[in-house]
Amino acid sequence: MADEPFEDSADYVQSLARGLSVLRAFSRDLPTPSLSDVANRTGLSRAVVRRSLMTLQHLGYVGQRGRQFFLTPRVLELGYSYLSSLDLTELAQQAMEQMAQRVGESCSMAVLDGGDIVYVLRVPVKRVMSIALGVGARLPAAATSMGRVMLAALDPAELDAWLEQHPPSAHTAHTLTEARALKAELKRVREQGYALTAQELELGLCSIALPVRTADGRVVAGLNVGMPYRPDSKKRAVEEILPILHETQMTIERAIRQGGWLPALQGHGRG
Q1: 3-state helix, strand, coil in the chain (%, to 5)
Q2: How far apart are CA 196 and CA 242, in angstroms?
Q3: Of 222, 227, 225, nearest to 252 (Cα)?
Q4: Which of 33, 129, 158, 209 allows an S-S link to 145, with CB 3.0 to 4.6 Å?
Q5: What is the pTM of this model?
Q6: Mean per-residue pLDDT pooled into runs of 10, the chain (271 residues)
Q7: How far apart are CA 256 and CA 261, in angstroms?
């Protein structure tokens, strides 16, 4: 007999799930939604949304201006609590700043969270993507170089389960969307040790990434350099940027070993 869905168990707190759903309704394209906007986006009733918003407002996470609601700076505490536990970013900051200066391109670090990568550190040099990226930004893992170096670390059963839960979707005409093709690409990533994507997430963008491992060999993050796509971008990425990226990877991993750092949550990069 199959296990019952967790949502039907006595341990599931529906009100908490609904409150988080309401928080996630706020976004770059909908920064000040009305009660009706939140209800439409979450699929919850107006009564439930109203109670959630009033509670979040009482706790200081949401403000109200007329009929519009907005997130307050206090909501950043939720993300910073995670980042403060992930002192990997402190270990990586200086090395990534030096790399960005050397290559003249923006560099980033991200972790895997479900079907997305989440940026935990970014050193911008110039804007490459139309999407504004910063700490906490999310991008689809399957179409990104950092996502692929983390997905390549999954064992076959884990990868199959991940693909079933998060089937890739097209973002440009160049995006790999077939599971077989993506698996073949991840196999290549495992063998060559790096991931290189060109115009799969957004036209005009190319990026190259390496995995970041703890002392026990676990992949906990992806480290990348992003650049504008040109005919010679792949050649430049592999011949010029990859060696510097590899030096930065080794510097960060050496700091991890010396500091005895381990992720606060077991299984980062395995979600």
Answers
A1: 45, 20, 35
A2: 10
A3: 222
A4: 209
A5: 0.69
A6: 73 90 89 94 95 94 92 76 65 87 91 89 70 76 94 94 91 88 94 93 92 90 92 91 94 81 49 33
A7: 5
